[in-house]
Amino acid sequence: MSERFKTVTIKGREYQISKWPAREGVYIVTKLSGLLAPMFAPLLQGADAQKLLNAKSPADFDLHGIDIASMFKPLASIPEADFLYLQDKCLAVVKVKLPAGYINVVNDNGSFAIEDLEEDSMLILTLMVHAILHNLAGFFDGSPLMGLFGATQATSSQT
Fold it and tell me: What is the pTM of this model?
């Protein structure tokens, strides 16, 4: 079973990523699978499963000859409402550490709890990626993709 919380430091600030409720997580993973499968296909074509399982960092993968731009093409097809739904679900499981303790990065009314997020698109995207990876990791236990997820999580916690 994967860990319940994941702590990441981004731009000198600590964030805690938690799990989606199980029923919600299954729905989100089901919706994401149609987007993620085409994204990973170029990585998996001709890949050595044992090498994927043993990956410790992205450097363990031969990315030469992979069209990275085409990997992200499915993301461009997401309707805005679906993307905002996913963004809301991702940010709902993220807390930021402040002197008084951890607080949700998004308030109940949908506004950001910290000013930094309002104008930092890359920070929001980075938090979304961490939330997705942390929540998807359990679905790939024992799979060759787990090496890829583990390598990504191990190297991306200090952004």
Answer: 0.71
> What is the arithmetic mean of pLDDT over 100-104?
96
102 exposure class (CB count in 10 Å sphere: 0-12, 13-18, 19+): middle
Q: Report helix angle 121-136 to 22-44, nearest 10.
A: 100
Q: How many CA atoms lie within 13 A of 153 on its CB side?
A: 21
3-state SS class at 103: strand
Q: Which of 38-42, 76-80, 90-94, 112-116 has the lowest mean pLDDT?
A: 38-42
Q: What is the sign, positive or negative, of the torsion defined by CA atoms of 73, 44, 86, 79?
A: positive
Question: Which among 19, 6, 43, 47 is positioned nearest to 135, based on CA atoms?
Answer: 19
Q: Tokens 């920070």 map to which residue?
A: 123
